[in-house]
Prior knowledge:
single chain, alpha/beta, five-stranded mixed beta sheet
Amino acid sequence: xxxxxxxxxxxxxAERLQRLIDTTSHKDAAVAEALEVELERAEVVDPxxxxxxxxxxxxxxxxxxxxxxxxLTRTLVYPHALANTPEGLSVMAPVGAALLGLKAxxxxxxxxxxxxxIQLRVDEILWQPEAAKQYHR
Length: 137
């Protein structure tokens, strides 16, 4: 397994995500555990300090699933926002949890709940709330 890149998470998102993890149902437990591990190793910063090239919550990101060579564009959202977000990707989905906090150009090797592994590369951050000075979204 590759070493994982250092991730950056906005403090407000980290707090919201921890509450989400703490109230997760059993069926999402594997993703919640993986997300909690990511939060524990994250560099947590104030929203104003999040670099513009980092995948934060509500960011629209173009990424490639390297095993399939499939490029996708998704907006990383909390589960409750999925219904209202075209091309939304829940942070509680394995791919969503994997992308959180990565910088453009970085690759991560991630285990899926079924035991398979995927490799994801962040190609571009198309929109990020912190870069747009929307610090409380």
